Amino acid sequence: MTLPVPPWRAWLFAAKTCAAALLALGLALWFDLPRPYWAMATVYITAQALAGATRAKAAYRVGGTLIGVAAAVALVPNLVGAPELLTLALALWTAGCLYLSLLDRTPRSYLFMLAGYTAALIGFPAVTDPAAIFDTAVARAEEITLGILCAALVSSLVLPQSVAPVVAGRIAAWLEEAGRWTGEVLSGGAEDLEVRARRLRLAADAGEIDLLAAHLAYDTSAQATAAPWVRTLRGRMLMLLPVLSSLDDRIRALRAVSGLTRDLRDLLGAVEAWSKAGAPRGDEPALQARIAEAERGLPPNPDWACLLRASLLDRLRELVALSRDCRTLEEHVARGGGPLREDLAFGGEFAARAPLHRDHGMALRSALGVIVSMSLCTALWIATAWPDGATAAMMAAVLCCLFAAKDDPTPSILGFAQWSAVAAVGAGVLLFGVLPRVHDAVTLALVLAPPLLLCGLLMANPATAAAGTALGVNGNALLAIQDRYNAEFSSFVNSSMALIAGIWIAALVTQLTRAVGAQQGAWRLLAANRRDLARAAERRGRGDRVAFASLMLDRIGLLVPRLAAAPAGSALRRVDTLAELRVGMNLVVLRRARHALPGDLVGLLDGVLDGVARHYRRPPGTADSGLIAGIDAALRVIGAAPGSGPQDGSGPEDGSGLQDRQNVSQDGRRDALLGLAGLRRGLCPDAPPYEPHPAGLREAA
After folding, report:
1. How is it placed in the membrane, per its record (predicted)?
2. Chain centroid offset of residue 601 CA
């Protein structure tokens, strides 16, 4: 059996990281910094394969380090006489910063995390000499900043790996998969659990593209200016998912009632052919004209097939516009951004920054874990007068922060502990078996290069990245290289034990306070979706459809790996998250339709929305028959109301019968009817088709 040879990109990353670490060590020794090995360790924390990602992480790490240094300088001198208060203050600072970091969920979150545990890294060792806290903090800031700058400099100057090609490739792959889904939907392909999982994966991939776009702004290539356009493209990519899901649902529903007429089938075939051809811009106007020709309007008392047909045409119109915009923006990003020379076809609303899911409960539990871990380590340190107890408290703070975003961080922390033990053994062999024979800088570099290269190779592989980081960071910290050899075996063993003990305490506390498991994490996300759906139904103002879709699709992206980890028979795999997304989109449409309807019809819609809110406040289950009956009643009354031309927003809302009926705008009536129809399909797709009541029911209702 032969071991696989790492690809050349892995060797390049390992060589650049090794060079940056040796450069940082050499400069730190030249500047006569107290702990030059901190600069080496920092390189292995900062290094990333892509130049833009390394520069972004470097910028946030410098900012976080400076904030953490300021916090340590403020806390230690004032509270050093009260160890309990100092421990509590440092723990609360670290926990508060971690809480903000977990809520942010952008690359900027790294700044908050660094600000938190940097204060612990500097504050705890300084308690033995609080008078020198300022000098110590400045030295630590210099060492850490030096390592950051060396990592960023080497990554940017030596064969830099640009983020731009990676972003372009991910966008192309995403649009290709979306095009495949479009073809399956328009041709009536069957959906099973595997197909559904593949479609949900698109939401997760869109989130990863957004993270890469954040790094693109720090890239060294000419495409760095394209970052805002990638976010614009991502908004339209995300809107494709509910449009395609809704289109798939309408086609199936029309086929069930024999409403998929020949002209609709021909139209679907034309859109499918256009999509397969790459959505050429020149053909889009003619296609939109064909969709408009197929539009028959909504007559009084429209039947179920008529409502589904109108909804289908709306989704087709949006699909064509969004597909055209996606291709336009993809080409524009590939050209490097700059001013867009042509108008975008889809005129929908787009949030400046898409909202992301925030789990305040889990963030608080993570913060609690940090406080308890640091307090336990400090109590052990004080009770035993352990010389290296500060190291345990520092490592507990760092490890609780590093893996806090996981559902169950305990396995990752324990894995880090195991590799840290390996790092301790390797550092011991080097420190006491090899380094005593090293007497010049060149020999030192030759001795350190092989293990440093090995750490870089491990970091280049996602499967072994955590092991490489543990070896690179803790191995360099335990080597504790200075300008002259002064290692002591007892001190080394003590430091190693304290380091591993701090990690184990962090794992124990995390297991007790924080671990939830993938399935529990998935149910928390689904519960958050239901709460937001209930709130969307309860609020009466105008809604931002794209912002709502972005939030729910962000949760779907978080759900994907958790659903993949669920057992085959788990109830999680049967949850149709895209159906909930469609419900949310229709709730926003109904909230907007309220502003174009007279008072009595608004009250009717509000009754439906209140019923939907009650439904989502209860445990998951099929919509009750009373809710479906309420939707059908609203469809009959609004369907019987005559229209009065385009919406002008001037209709009275005094609930006075005939006057209200005369002021029902065509746009408001259409939005209300199609929103109710979509709501009905999303809540209970297996319900029998809606049947319009004979004219005259409105007065009876």
Report:
1. Multi-pass membrane protein
2. 39
Six token digits for residue 628: 């479906």
d(CA 307, CA 664): 18
Q: What is the dihedral of CA 331, 332, 335, 337, to 10 degrees?
A: -160
The pLDDT, as a whole number, for residue 57 is 81
Token reading at 667: 């746009």
Q: Are 631 and 679 in contact (CB under 8 A)?
A: yes
Residues of the chain with pLDDT under 50: 1-2, 351-352, 644-663, 695-701
- Give, in order, the Cα–Cα distances in Å from 274 to each of 242, 245, 249, 678: 20, 19, 21, 26
* Helices (H), ranges, 295-359: 304-334
Closest CA to 677 of 636, 631, 643, 639: 631
DSSP 8-state symbol, 280: -
* Residue 16 pLDDT: 94
Distance of CA 637 to the CA centre of its chain: 42
CA 453 – CA 472 distance, rounded (Å): 9
Q: Which two tokens stand for residue 519?
A: 């399935």
Residue 398's contacts (CB-CB under 8 Å, 6 or more residues apart) are: 117, 120, 121
Give the gyration radius of the chain's Cα atoms. 30
Confidence (pLDDT) at 236: 85
Our measurement of the distance from residue 88's CA atom to the centroid of its chain's CA atoms, rounded to an integer in Å, reads 32
Q: Based on the number of CB atoms within 10 Å of its own CB, is 32 exposed (0-12), middle (13-18) or buried (19 or more)?
A: exposed
At 654, the amino acid letter reads D
- The CA-atom distances, in angstroms, between 627 and each of 115, 564, 574, 608, 680 are 50, 33, 22, 7, 9
Q: How far apart are CA 600 and CA 128, in angstroms?
A: 75
**What CA–CA distance (Å, rounded) separates 529 from 534?**
9
What pTM, to 2 d.p., does this model score?
0.84
Tell me, what's the pLDDT at 696? Answer: 45
Q: Tell me, which fold does domain 164-334 have in CATH?
A: Methane Monooxygenase Hydroxylase; Chain G, domain 1 (1.20.58)
Q: SS in 3 state form for 503-516?
A: HHHHHHHHHHHCCC
Instruction: Tally the residues of the chain.
Output: 701
The Cβ of residue 111 has, within 10 Å, a number of other Cβ atoms equal to 25
Q: CB count, 10 Å around CB of 217?
A: 17
- Nearest CA to 110 out of 98, 94, 92 is that of 98
The reported pLDDT for the residue numbered 338 is 74
Strands of 433-578, DSSP E: none
Q: What one-letter code names the amino acid at 96?
A: G
Residues with Cβ within 8 Å of 465's Cβ and at least 6 positions away in sequence, in order, are: 458, 459
Give the residue among 125, 148, 153, 122 at the shortest CA–CA distance from 42.
Answer: 148
Residues 6+ apart with CB under 8 A from 99: 363, 364, 366, 367
Query: Percent helix, strand, coil in the chain (nearest 5)?
Result: 75, 0, 25
Question: Which tokens is 112 given?
Answer: 């908050």
Structural contact between residues 476 and 426, judged by C-beta atoms closer than 8 angstroms: no
Q: Would you put residue 600 in left (φ > 0), alpha (ψ -120 to 50) or beta?
A: alpha
Segment (H or E) for 74? helix 51-79
Q: What is the pLDDT of residue 653?
A: 34
Question: For the residues of 104-117, what is the DSSP string, one character each?
Answer: H-STTHHHHHHHHH
Distances (CA, A) of 219 to 174, 475, 532, 588: 22, 30, 36, 38
Q: What is the pLDDT of residue 119?
A: 93
> Looking at the chain, which residues constitute the CATH 1.20.58 domain(s)?
164-334
Q: What is d(CA 89, CA 254) in angstroms, rounded to the nearest whole number? A: 63
Maximum C-alpha span of the chain: 100
Cβ atoms 4, 464 nearer than 8 A: no
